[in-house]
Amino acid sequence: MSTSDVEPQTQPSSEAQALSEIVTWANSCPMWQRDALRRLCDKERLSQEDLDSLLGICKGEQEGRPITAEHVRDPSASNLEVSLSKLHNLQHVNALQSGETLTFQKSGLTVIYGDNGAGKSGYARVLKQACRARLPKDDTVLPNVYAAERGIPQAEVSFRVGGQNQSVTWRQGTTADPRLTAISVFDSNTAAVHVDATNDLAYTPLPLRVMASLAETCKTLKSKLDDEIRVIERQTPAILNSPDCAPDTEVGKLLSGLSSKTADATVEGLAGLSELEEARLKTLAADLANDPVRVARQLQGQKTQIDKARDRLKKLAKAVSDENVTNIKQLYETYERSRAAAALVSADLFSDEPLPQVGSDVWRSLWEAARTYSNQGAYPDKKFPVTDEEARCVLCHQELGPEASERLNKFEAFVLDESKKREDEARKAYQAARSALEATYISMQDVQAIASLIRDNLGDEELANTVKRCAVQNSWRLRSVLKTVGLKGVAIKATQAEVPDAEMAAHSEGLEKRAAGFVAEKESPERKALVAEHSELAARQWLGTVKADVLEQIKRLKAVSGLKKVQKTTATNKITTFSTEIAKRLVTDRLRARFAQEVARLGIAEQHAVELKHARSSAGIPLFHVRMMSNPDEPVGKILSEGEHRCVALAAFLSELSTLDTPSGIVFDDPVSSLDHIHRDRVAERLAIESLNRQVVVFTHDIAFLVLLEEACRETRDHAAVPIAYRVVSRGANAAGFCNTEPPANVLPIDKVVTQMRRHLGNVRIHHDRGDQANWRREVRSFSEQLREAWERAVEDVVSPVIKRLAKKVQTDGLIRLTVLQEQDCHDMRDAYGRCSQLLHSQPGELNPRLPSPDQIENEIAALESWAQNIRGRQDQL
């Protein structure tokens, strides 16, 4: 979005006018927003206490205090010429000394200097609040924490309106005179230009910052309300999330549609049963106890068990049938014949072997194990048995001799012989048939279970006994077959029993029909009506047990409904629309052009060409950023130093002032960074020029900046001399805030230093005249030090056309002014400097030297004055 996208089509607005419009606009806002705007116009950020209080107002738990015209700068004050006169009668303001008066020069520049902890910031805070300037977080005026009595901070502010003297009393927590809002205050901590969360340099005029903070507060309160809603919703009992009732009952419908509008009487009417209804519920429960679906499942299960029993009985009967008995005997006989034939071959082949039973089953197992080890471990790449040269026995690992090799080959030939193969095949066939026969065995435990199923579930005692006899008899026959299969001439004692298959099949079919019938019964209208009646009564009975929980849940739902209704007041649509209108009237082409001029005047444009551009919107609030003209996408906050950042903020402030066309005073609180030695002189020059048109007050703790301000106020080819006044705020033993109208000696011009010393000499001469040696000695020591410092300052003035203290460059065009210096000037200076050092030093042999008289000190002051004036006069003639 380009800057032209937000260009206004209406009359440009000042900050005070925009704030006044916010007050009017707020009349249609919820009370909590009006209260939030009041707080946001007073402080940079809302504390957690503020947010909690606003949440209480939002929920109707606290009374709100809306923003009014007295909480913002008076737009009509911009038409007045207002300047500060003095700040006095301070009481309970930090640790400032009561009775002190801080005065301000009527026009030009007033520089208020104070070291850290001297009390300078206390005076600045009072002025900020009296002029309704926005305060940084935690920058409120506090009473003296060490005082026994802590009253409410207050002070008297004297000022001029159109040349007429006025005076008002400011008191913490009350609104000061609206005319004081014509005084503009610059504080880098609350400046319109600031580093945002993306490390970019944002330009946000105060009205837009107030609206942006309001939008952010809306989001914060919405989140807090969301948290409260979640806490309430988590209190819902689990039993109500999964109610123990059918959803199609009246109770089920009530619970599924439970809301804040549900009447308690509706719950009371459904909860619980009368005695007649309780009796009816018991009757229905008994009649419907056999649930058709459940009974059908039981019958299907019984049918499955009967069918499995039939199958087992039939398999057992078939296994012990005469045909199957004959078959297994034949298989056994075939196996015996094959084994005998293989034994004959083995006896013939291995009769001479040293060990018996070669070729037996035990031997064969050993041989096959040897084969497996050889093929998979010892000799995987050679055919078993391996009997070549250097081969070893895979069982004993001894080297094979010719005899052993021959024996192994003979063993393998026997194993591969056809007779042995026939033996193996016959054995496998017999073993398979025997295993299948053994698998049909039914244990006595299983026999009892089958009989019980038929007797207990089907009620057929006779069939249960028949099945039991059949299973027992055929199981006995099976055991007999297994015992006698290899015995010739031994008869099988037990005979085969016939399975009552038809009777069991009939029962299976009957169970299936009954199950189908119960399933069909479930769908009948009569049963459905009984089930519905039972469900309704059971649901009401259950509701009676949880009635208290349901009534509490309705209260919770009402609370949630109320919170959601309140939450609608946190919508930001209206804020967005109004903020866009303000932005169009505040950030104009005129402001952007003036910003570019101010940036250039402060020297930023020489290194970084920057401009104001519309960047984006956050929560609907138009945001403007300071952008590099050569690289708009690079965050400026990463490029500019702290000093450059403060210069850009100052440029924005001065640009905003240019749109007001008002001559009222300006207050600057530490306008430069003590870390920035590059731009301080440009800032000093800019403030000096501004002081030609209006009263300017500067609070600073930077002595270097104070010196630069003094130099900038001197007459130049570009501007006339600027009236400058100094105020020094210092700290005493037990208090701070002592005010002095004289500047620090190390920044005074030499002529003023001379005047001060002469004035002081006149005040303390009485110590010498009265013979008060102790006090006069102290004064002489002081004058000695002052004179030495004054001579050093005089030398600085002489060479200042070329090089100045704290200057960042050498003025080569002033070199010619040093040509007036003569050798005698140097001798005079060194002689006088030496005499200053001798004022308190005794001569050899003197134990109690005579102190110099006031006239001698006056002579030294005169020598200094004459030397400085003489050289300055010669320089001025060039």
Automatic annotation (TrEMBL):
Molecular function GO labels: ATP hydrolysis activity
One Pfam family in the UniProt entry: AAA_23
InterPro entries: P-loop_NTPase, Rad50/SbcC_AAA
Domain Rad50/SbcC-type AAA: 92-333
Domain of life: Bacteria
GO BP annotations, alphabetical order: double-strand break repair
The protein's name: Rad50/SbcC-type AAA domain-containing protein
Lineage: Bacteria, Pseudomonadati, Pseudomonadota, Gammaproteobacteria, Oceanospirillales
